Amino acid sequence: MEIKAIGCEPLQLKRVGMKDSHTLKVYQETGGYESLKKAMNMTQDDIINEVKASALRGRGGAGFPTGMKWSFVPRQSPKQKYIVCNADESEPGTFKDRYLLELDPHSLIEGMLIAAFALGSQACYIYYRGEYRYLIDIMDKAIEEARAANLVGKNILGSDFSCEVYTHTGAGAYICGEETALLSSLEGYRGHPRMKPPFPAIEGLYASPTVVNNVETLTSVPQIIEMGGEAWKKLGTEKSGGTKLWSVSGHVKKPGVYELPMGYADMEKFIMEDCGGMRRPDKKLKAVIPGGSSVYIMNAEQIIGKNVTLDYEGLVEAGSMVGSGGFIVMDETVDVVESTKNLTEFYKHESCGWCTPCREGTDWLVKIFNRISIGEGRPEDAQLLLDICDNIEGKSFCPLGDAAAWPIQSAVKRFPEDFKKWLLNKTNDNGYTANV
Amino acid sequence: MSTELIKVTINEQEFEVEKGAKLIEVCREKGFGIPSFCYYGDLALQASCRMCLVRIEKMPKLQTSCTITCTDGMIVTTQSEEIEKAQRAMSEFLLANHPLDCPVCDRGGECELQEMVMDWGDLEERFVERKNAQPEKFLSPIVANDPQRCILCKRCTRVCDEWMGEEAIEAGNRGVNTVIGTYGGWLGCSQCGNCIEVCPTGTLLDGVYRHETRPWEMDQTRTTDVYSSDGMQLSIGSRGGEVHRIVARDRYVNGLNGEFLDVKARFAHGFINSKDRIKTPLIRYKKGGKLIPSTWDEAIHFVGSKLKESGNNVGVVASSRLTNESIFTLKRFATEAVNSNNYAVSDAYDLAPFFDNLSAPLCTHKEIRHAKTILLIGGEPEEEQTFTAKQIRQAVRNGGAKFIVVHDTPIRLAAQASQFIHVNKGSLDAFALAFADQSDATITKKLGAAQTEIDDLLKTIGETEGDFIIMFGGDLSAEAQAVLANVAGSFASDTRRALLHPLPLYNNSVGANDMMAGKKPLEEVLRTSKALLIAGSLPEDKTDLLANKDFVVVQELFETATTEYADVVLPAASFAEVDGTFTNNAGFVQRVRKAIEPIHQSKPDWVIASMIARELGADFGYNFSSTMVFKAIADSVPAYEGLRYPLLKDESKPVQAKYSPVAKRDLSNEFAALRRKVEALPETSEKITETPRVGHKLHRVTTMTGKTDQFHLLAAGNPKPENLLVSPLVQFNLDGTPRLVEMAEAASVNVKDRIDDKETVASKVVLK
Ligand SMILES: Cc1cc2nc3c(=O)[nH]c(=O)nc-3n(C[C@H](O)[C@H](O)[C@H](O)COP(=O)(O)O)c2cc1C
Ligand code: SF4
Ligand code: SF4
Ligand code: SF4
Ligand code: FES
Asked: Is residue B264 part of a domain?
């Protein structure tokens, strides 16, 4: 398991290798909380402008420009404003936030405090996925340490800025990573997404203006304040600023969390050299899901010799998305029908059930995959799968429906051979046939 | 809503619409059909069924028209290949796991899913997989449930929450396993059945009507509720002279209450065709003897001769359950047939002090929904005037109204209040005095509330722009009611209307007060008359007064404590068997229509009274036509002047009787009497702290509700049966004690048990 930066100085990963990196002492020795002090001498507008200038885009998956999101908050509103950190990290293939929460908790606290200061908020919540409960003590201790140092709580650093930071866990639902479902869950309701508009920036937690940001988004903020938005942006490209964490898993020699500058060239080199190449040298690269399970799966032809850059624009051009940066590499032993069935089961299991297309569609899709897997696939099933996906995509209440459709659509189109095997010969490579 | 007009283009046609209008409503109004399930007017938006998708220019993706507010220049397409595909797709998804066995479903024939799929869906089935299945079960004695038919539109959970304030049902589980369920597996709610009504599919079902007939086999008759003074409009479903169910489904009836009804209005109709109905006239020839069946001719003749003997010592009592036509006729019977001024209404709550001092307009239920401030003094609308309570809840929840409750009991509705003035037990009169006469600060001592609380209330009223509504009922003394009704008008200003809303107890309490001008107190009539004609039974605590009367005639549906004193009992027709009108607490004069012919030999109360009158030589000139009776009412009751049945035909446009507000008059006598009452209240008094149980009034077993078995179980505390798959009526005796031992075990035995041990399994099901 590698945790390192390639092609840039480690920023997100600056402290992860240090002993006691989670303590306030180490954090402050390495420049921690200086950005907060700096920010508290800036105006709110200046802070937001720095974040805008950095071209930081949300690292939770949707990639929305963070500075713009912050500027939507009506700061003059008499209502309480909230900063909510999305630490639900449940996207299959994604495990970067965990290391930040575990090894560098203060950078998240500092990022939240800067956001809170910039938006006039006095309360921050960190929403952990249920399965990360075991990490929460680390954060709670860090918050207490920060409080003891007058960095959290009343009159921070002797100023009239007061702000609390709270932790909270979900109960194991993927949908609670979706920002509005997260807010419902945080308020104690069923974890259902809510209607947008109103967007959380206007009516979020307790119907008050709220910014929801991913862990990595928020830990970028102290860096941006420290070096200035322009400088931070320059680490990456014009439209995709800064550096980004990639959670690499699958059939490579060195899986792990890699920090790459945005625009890193290229994807093939990253897999074949930086990540150590294919785990079994005799097996060829077959597929990559570059941004967590909810993006289009890519086949080898889309990568090899194509100079795909790792940034928002590069991956879209290559036929996929950055998403959450959950980078899953598969070699030729993988049967894409089986891997897609597995993902479809995930989405069916995680569909919240609110809306018709996602609730019924994912159930139907799984039933079709189950039938295919016992050798009862029919040639027309490929078209049926695509049509069901088309009927879900763009028609569901929240993006989970789209996320369920995309992997299947891309798998059917980009791996027709695998589907042919199952639908025409009713078996896979291992000679498995149905027991009918 | 503002009246500013904006332009929208729908399917290339330009329209002017009100700013802020909902797109789905606009499209439908302009004749462009849009399918929907989860959208329901005046409920929180859900946007989950995804049936209502349309294309709006400049927006990515199809949009749900139920969530879109029209903006100027909006360009909308509701019909295109893309949209039709989406509509077919949603129908197909909804049917994927839905059983396709409509012939065994109670909703078949009036199911919105059936209709929507026929109109918009693809009829060719592509779903060849196994459907998810779940067993049918009961959620309460009244709510039956077939979970596999649910399309998760969540209309049910929203009405339960927003209309009823009960939050008794909610979705459980996740994804395709989501089910609408209860807390603890059983519904301990008020059993209003609104969740059943709004359910578009056969998922929540009327447990009283279950499997009795099919919707299309029933005649639907629009009529008015016979229980609550809200005058809810409903539809009686009957077949072959039998009433099978009552609904408020908007396909059959479109009244002031929409699809809202309560447990009594919707389910307590068993009395109509009850086997206990009195079948023929009955005569007790000798005091202490038995009631013996007779013919109508003989009975009327007998009554006539006996009443003649009593001269003008005859008293007449009418129940406020009866139609205006019957009550009016009974009054005429007193004054014209037996020359008597001794007539009364057998209602515990006399509305005369209210109406005689009406200083502000009566408010309608629609006005309650849109009120800015509502003051409730006493009463318990959530148990007695349920539709009023629903309107209050929505005014607060959806309209942001201020709601102030003044009560000696923390009633459930008080949880919704922005201010709750918790007064001492029995000291509502003191509040009325303090409110009407703000100069006297000593009263608050008796009240058990601080002066500041009253100041806060007055401040809220003072800040109100829009409608301010005062509601109260019969738990205030007559003087207090008079005083309150008389000061109400003085709260009106240029920017504020003051409105009054009484909380009477019966369906036609208001009408009875209108029909019986000059009525006397019930007790006085009972004490001073030698002979009595009583239509509908007396309150049980008054029946003693009938002992030692020369002659008592009772018009009734059932034998009751009152008929025990009767010399003659004449079988009366129920509300489902007569034409007429009821007047509700908003003053709406609404039609009662005959759904079935009178049961057995029963006759409408006004017909019976007219027959006796004719025997006594008085002819009211009705020609046995209720239209003529109503015309006579319109000619002699000022507030009803000019009304005719045809004017009352459309239940969606109810007609209000014209009560002329009285000017503020000198009330010093009432004030003095009220002050004496308040002074007599104890100085320090206890507070009631317990919130009354849901249904403590609604679920009471009475002569009428008791004929529907389910009410006995509700009154017995609505016990949860062990086996949810079998009707609770099978598992409990009516007093709530378990009836079938080991029923649950018997029904859940597995196949192996059945093969190995047939004998023991059968013997486990033992009737106790
Ligand atoms: C189904 C679904 C699951 C999501 N899960 C996560 C998650 O686990 N973590 C996360 O940060 N964002 C997740 N998101 C994205 C959030 O909705 C939201 O866009 C994000 O928290 C915004 O933060 P950012 O702008 O910093 O990325 C999810 C979105 C969807 C639709
Ligand atoms: S798409 Fe619909 S069912 Fe799926 S998670 Fe979102 S709201 Fe829930
Ligand atoms: S019967 Fe009424 S109170 Fe009970 S669950 Fe249904 S809607 Fe709610
Ligand atoms: S039970 Fe009926 S009303 Fe409730 S969600 Fe299901 S289909 Fe809709
Ligand atoms: S009616 Fe619009 S989504 Fe259901």
From this structure: no
Chain B's closest residue to A346, CA to CA, is: B175
Residue with token string 């079938």: B740
Q: How far apart are CA B595 and CA B226, in angstroms?
A: 13
Neighbours of A361 (CB within 10 A): 30
Residue B455 shares a structural domain with residue B534: no
Of A190, A367, A394, the CB nearest to B171: A190
pLDDT tens-digit profile of B183-241?
999 999 999 999 999 999 999 999 999 999 999 999 999 999 999 999 999 999 999 99
CA-based nearest residue in chain A for residue B170:
A190
Q: Whole-angstrom Cα distance, residue B499 to residue B488?
A: 7
The residues near B653 (Cβ < 8 Å, ≥ 6 apart) are none
Q: Domain range spanning residue B382?
A: 359-502
Can you tell me the distance from the alpha carbon of B398 to that of A272, in angstroms, rounded to the nearest whole number? 60
CA–CA gap between residue A88 and residue B230 (Å, rounded): 50
The domain boundary, picked from B601, B631, B656, lies at: B656
Output the pLDDT for position B662.
Answer: 85
Pair of tokens at residue B309: 């003997």
DSSP bridge pairs for B648: none
Assess whether B498 and B513 both reside in one domain: no
| Alpha carbon of B399: minimum distance to chain A alpha carbons (Å) | 16
Give residue A435's pLDDT band: very low, low, confident or very high (50, 70, 90): very low
B237 falls within a domain = no
- Pair (B487, B539) in one structural domain: no
For B176, the closest of A359, A391, A394 (CB atoms) is A359
What does the DSSP 8-state code read for residue B748?
A: T
The string of pLDDT tens digits covering residues A221-266 is 999 999 999 999 999 999 999 999 999 999 999 999 999 999 999 9
> What is d(CA A365, CA A386) in angstroms, rounded to the nearest whole number?
10
Tell me which of A178, A217, A294, A322 to substitute to probe ligand 1's pocket, judged by most ligand atoms within 8 Å of the beta carbon.
A178
Residues B420 and B518 both lie in one domain: no
Structural domain tally of chain B? 3
**Element of type H or E holding B421:** strand B419-422
* Phi, psi at B625, each rounded to 5°: -125, 125
The strand pairing partners of A123, in sequence order, are A82, A164
In a domain, B166, yes or no: no
Contact (CB<8Å) A195/B45 = yes
Do B418 and B535 share a domain, yes or no? no
Residue that finishes a domain, picked among B94, B114, B134: B94
Q: Which atom of ligand 3 is nearest to the CA of B156?
A: 7
Residues B638 and B526 in one domain: yes
Distance in angstroms (rounded) separating the CA atoms of residues B205 and A44: 57
Q: Are A242 and A217 in contact (CB under 8 A)?
A: no
pLDDT score recorded for residue A147: 98
| Cβ-nearest to B175 among A195, A348, A357 | A348
CA angle B88, B89, B90 (to 5 degrees): 95
Ligand 2 pocket member A396 (CB < 6 A): yes
Distance CA B484, CA B377 (A): 10
Q: Are residues B364 and B488 in the same domain?
A: yes
In angstroms, how far is CA A124 from the centroid of its own chain? Answer: 20
Model's pTM, two decimal places?
0.94
What rounded mean pLDDT belongs to chain B?
94
Q: Are residues B389 and B498 in the same domain?
A: yes
Q: Is the predicted ipTM greater than 0.85, yes or no?
A: yes
Residue B491 · residue B458 · CB < 8 Å: no
Residue identified by tokens 């690499």 is A248
Q: With cut-offs at 50, 70 and 90, classify the pLDDT of residue B741.
A: low
Ligand nearest to C-alpha B259: 3
Domain CATH number, residue B341: 3.40.50.740
Residue B663 lies in a domain: no
The CATH number of residue B9's host domain is: 3.10.20.740
Q: If you count residue pairs, one on A and one on B, with CB atoms under 8 Å apart, how many are there?
A: 90
